[in-house]
Every structure is written in C-alpha cells, then in structure tokens.
Amino acid sequence: MTTSPAEMAEPRRRLHPLSPLLHGAKSIAVVVAALSWNTLQEVGLGRFALVVTVLALGVVVFSVVNWLTTGYHVVGRELRISDGLLWRRNRAIPLERLQAVELRRPLLAQLTGLAELRLEVVGGSKTEAPLAYLTVRDAAALRERLLALAGRTTAVAAQPDAGAQVAPPSLERQLVRVRNRDLVTSQLLTPQAFFLPVGVTFVVIQFVLEAEWTFIGIASTFTAMAGVLLHPARRILQDWDFRLARDPGGRLLVRYGLLETRSQVVPPHRVQSIGLTWPLLWRGHKWLHLRLDIAGYAGEHGSDSKQSDRLLPVGDFGTARSLVWEVLPSVDLTTLATSPPPARARWLHPFALRYLGVGLTPEVFVSRWGLLTREMSLVPYARLQSVRVVQGPVQRLLGLATVYADTAGGRSGEARDRDLAEAWALAEQLAVRARHARRLLSQP
Amino acid sequence: MTPPPPYVDALTPWPDTVAWRPVSRKLITVELIARGIGVVVLLAGLGVGWALAPHWLWPAGMGVVVAYAIWRSIVTFRAVRAWGYAERDQDLLVKHGLLIRRLSIVPYARMQFVDVTAGPLERAFGLATVQLHTAAAASDAKVPGLPPQEAARLRDRLTALGENRAEGL
C-alpha cells in the first residue's frame, strides 16, 4: 500500500454538529407517539414528562456517540465512510460506480439549513451511505467533487484538479418546470381520487339507511378515506415545484418536493432506460408521465419514498418529446415506428393487440403495450445488459416468442409474442446493435 | 409473400453459425439422485404419518409423490439434453427449459462477476455450475453440469474476455 501526499492531506471529516439533534428529534417524536395519550392519562403529566425526558436524553446521547464515531473522507477515487462504536464499519465506495447523487432536505433540515447527501451505487440493494446531515454548502461542494471524480476517466485522473472542483456558478439551462396546477389536476385524475366521491356517497347512504352514527364508524371511514388519498397527496407533496435543468457539464438536475425538497444530479450516461405512461384518466388532457431508470434505484418498487426516478411527473406530448430528445440525443418521439406482432397473437391478447409493438430505431429499442394505460419503453442499445428469448407452452403452439432486452435499471424492454423467426432476428439485431453502440462509446 | 419460411426451432437458433455445446450427461444422474433423496424423505414423512394416524389419504399422497417423481425423472432426461451453451466472439449464449424455453445472450463486456459452484452431489460426480452475473438482475446465464476442467476453462475465459471488454454499465 502506498499513500500519496494527497491521501494524507485529506483528513477524516465529521457530519454537522446539529445532526444528532435532528436524528434525535425524529426518534423522540416516534417515542412520544408510541407512548400515546393513553399512557399520559394513566401516569399523569409529571411522570410522563419525566419518562419522555429520560428517553430523549438517552436518544440524544446515543446520537451524539454515533455522530462522534462517524466520519467520511475522499481517498483517491473512493469515498470512505466509517461509523459505529461497538461494531466499527468501514465502507469504501468506488466512485466509478456512482449512478446518481441526491441532496435531500426534510422539513427539519430545511429549518436548520442542513441537507442529507445520498449516493446511488449500483450493486447496493439500498441507498449507500446517506450522509446526514451536512450544511447545504458542504453537501453541494461534496456532491460536485464526487461527481467530478466519478466522471473522470482514469486517463484524466492523473491531471491535477486544483481549480476543477470549484462548482461553477449556475449556468444551468432550465428544461422544464411543471406547473403546480397541472400536478394537482393530474393527481385528482387518478383512480384513488375518483373513488373518493363514490366512497363518500356509499357511506352517507349507509348512514341514512341505518341511522346509526357511531364515533368508531365515522373515524374508521375517515381513516379509510385518508388511506385512499394518501398516495395522490404524497405524490403532490413530493413532486411539488418540479424543475428539471441541465448543467454546463450536461448532467441532469432534478429538483422537487414541498416538505422534503430533493435535488438530484444524474449524469446522462447513467440513464438505463426511459418509460412513458399515458394513464387512462389523463387522456382528456393528452398528458403523460416520464420515468427514468437508473441502476441504483433498481428493485425499489415497494417503498414509495425512494422512488426518485421521475423525469416528468405530468406533461404534454411536446414537453415529453423535447425531454426525451435532451436525455437520449437524436431520439424523436414522433418518429418511433413500431410494428405489431402477428395476427395469431390475438389468441393471447384479444383486445390489446393493436397497442402492442416493437421497433428498432438507430439508437433505441422501442416497445409499447397496454390497452387502458398505454406504456412505452425506450432502451438505448448502449445500455443493454443481456438479451433473452423466452417461449412458453402456449406460445409454442402458436409459434410465438417473447424477447426481453434487460437493463440494469430493473425493467426490461419487452417484445411480446413475436413470430419465432422474427424473435431470433430481433435478438440477433439487439446483440449486434448493443455491441456496436458500446464500441462507439468506448472510442469517442 | 415470401417463399416458405426456413425451419425454426426454439431450442436451436442459428444452427449454421453457432456451435452449441451440451452439458454433461452425468447431470442426469445427479438430478435423479437428488430427486430420489427428496422422494425418500417425503415418503418417510408420509409413512410416519400413516403409522401414527391411519387414513387412506396417506398412501394416496405417497402414490402422487411417486408418480410425480417418475414423471419428473422422465422429463429430466430431455431437460438436461435441452441445456446448452455456446461461446461466440462477443457473447455467451445459454439455452434451457422444455416447457418454457429460454435463451439468454449475455455479452462478455457486461459481465460483473462469475460464480463457480459445486454442491456435494455435483462434486461426487465431478461436476460444477458456472453462472455469469450482469448488472441486470433479470439476465440468467447459468450453465450447470460442467466437468471441473471445462468449468475452470470457461471461468477463466469469461473473466479474461470480461476484462478485455470491461465496461460494466
């Protein structure tokens, strides 16, 4: 092991001194909620306050110890993070693997001028190394630095980088800004929001017929309504004031959020695929939403809070077209021709056959499907990981096969129920084009 | 319309250009023994149940298990023959499956790591499994039933090719 002077010069740094308090505040709120009013009534205010104080002290001490033992520093092209008191843990995050960096500011952090830095690294099942919390300035500087390190090829890495790390003043070019009115309208046009009046009517009719107004009944009704509305409401809060911009280095800057603001930087070559969705209820406005697949976010469909993969929460076709053009240069949404599967696939898709289709354009593999909610996915050939051809028993009877174009983003491009000979040709073409695209990338 | 289309088969695409290599026939024996052990354990469990609480359902269950095992064993002969792999210049092809037929094309450049595994039964028969992992969770390039020297050769070749063309994502 050799240690260059640069590595020696970089000391281990701590998180912001306020972070234990912010962490503690969350835990205390949870504790108080868990103790609930019931306990308060039983033990009396004085003892309740005592219990809460003791618990709060414990939490703060724990957080402070945690803070004291957590440190991070950049060594070469790695970010090293160490934490833990009894179980020391040292993590080295290779920055070549960095997919995206997100700066997240929950409400409390906004009040105190702090931010959390999250790194998305491929291969990690969860977000690697959330650095919570740093001052906004530190977080932004560190982000710039990590991205600069991640973007450099090994050839450039040898050069001194004294001035390069200073973040340039915001010369970014705004690409799109979603109007909040559109966002609210779009979320009102969801099945959940449509269900609400139906549900309310049902409950009212029940009450009128039964003439029985119990507290439990009303409370549970409201809880159910809140549960139904939670998803659209959360989407509105999350996607509030959605802005997308492009910085001078060509990276995408995504900012959104009301209570918790997020700002995300995605290098364009980290985009694994783009998904377009036209929900049924949005068709009156001709709206659609765009999704960006990044490798680090793969397989996180369950947890809603982590789905920070939006490219456009709601927008019209023109906006989507210009955005796709920005992210995947020379891909024009209006010129994507697709061909349908053979007519005998009707046995498998009695209604939706018309909307199935795949196309090979010079840059991307296009596939579209869906009768009510129409969807389309664009997979750049350069991002293809593998190609699969799968034929089930029914498909064998009909002489059909499905071709999958796998990406690291977790979602695959699918050419469903193609003629078998065509499927082979498609698989061959995908493999050849992927190879060609990669070669172009490696020797620019 | 075009003249009659060329004969296409789900298991042997591009027969002219791709040299498919079969997996070892010993894999049939391994799978049969593994299934035999499973069946014996199941039958023993059912037998104990029968001894404790006599009911006609127990022997019926045994019959079903035996019939299923026999059917699966017959299928195994064909299923093992259906496995195949081919190394092309740029990618590895793996095909398998009878009921649902699958073919995977994995470029060497996309390889993240190679797994070589061998369970106790496989080791007893001198077999190993090589699996190629990419960044996409969906890609399945797994070749079971390889003789150790072939597994080592494949592993080394894959690793060498992957290093030459390393791009990862």
**Count of the domains of chain A:** 3
Q: How can the largest sheet of chain A be summarized?
A: 7 strands, antiparallel
Average pLDDT metric of chain A: 80
- The overall strand count of chain A is 19
Q: Residue share in helices of chain B? A: 40-55%
- Biggest β-sheet of chain B: count, sense, barrel? 4 strands, antiparallel
Shape of chain B: elongated
Reconstruct the topology from this structure.
The complex is a heterodimer of chains A (444) and B (169).
Chain A: H1 5-9, H2 19-43, H3 45-69, E1 71-75, E2 78-83, E3 89-94, E4 98-105, H4 107-112, E5 114-121, E6 128-135, H5 136-151, H6 154-157, E7 173-177, H7 180-188, H8 191-210, H9 215-239, E8 243-246, E9 252-256, E10 261-266, E11 271-278, E12 287-294, E13 310-316, H10 317-327, E14 357-360, E15 364-369, E16 374-380, E17 386-391, H11 393-398, E18 400-406, E19 413-419, H12 420-442
Antiparallel strand pairs in A: 1-2, 2-3, 4-5, 4-10, 5-6, 7-8, 8-9, 9-10, 11-12, 11-16, 12-13, 14-15, 15-16, 17-18, 18-19
Chain B: E1 21-22, H1 26-52, H2 57-82, E2 84-87, E3 91-96, E4 101-107, E5 111-117, H3 120-124, E6 128-134, E7 141-146, H4 148-164
Antiparallel strand pairs in B: 1-2, 2-3, 3-4, 5-6, 6-7
Helix pairs in contact in B: 1-2
